[in-house]
Amino acid sequence: MEKTPKGTSVGVDDPYAVVERCDFLTDDGRCRYAAEHGHNDPEFARERHEDDLRCPAADPDGDWGWGDCPHFRARQRSRECLRCGLEERRLAHDDERPLLEEHHLEYREDDRKDAAHEITVFLCRWCHAKIHDSWARIDDDASPDPEAIAEAEGRRSKEQAEFGFESAAERYGEEQDGE
Where residue 6 falls among pLDDT bands split at 50, 70, 90? Predict the structure, then answer.
């Protein structure tokens, strides 16, 4: 299993196996990096422009995999735990610790600077701890931890309480004249 530079597990053998698509890939299979950020790598941009900006890693018959692209980046878009499916519940104006945390699957290594990519997924705090404790894997068939469910339900109850209308006088216990 892949490890961080500190030696803890990242929860997968192949970080690219959990990638759905590159963040720079457009819906029609073109490379947005070459179109918008080509000045950072003119040679790469020139090659992509010669091929009508086609992404060679997105082509199932192509010669590249995600790991072959020097500008590959993938961040999970859905706000739920990749392992157990727990959904994030954030309350506005609340400083409570988030239920979900970013988990990085591939880390830069000194001897492979050109091969390091940003691959980030969301894991709930409980699954994240299990992954780094080295016994759990991201692709395990897992259910949310009971403590995670309780925390999410507590936040859900707070959300529902905010939906109900309550005048400021009722909310802060102030009495109106004539009542």
Answer: confident
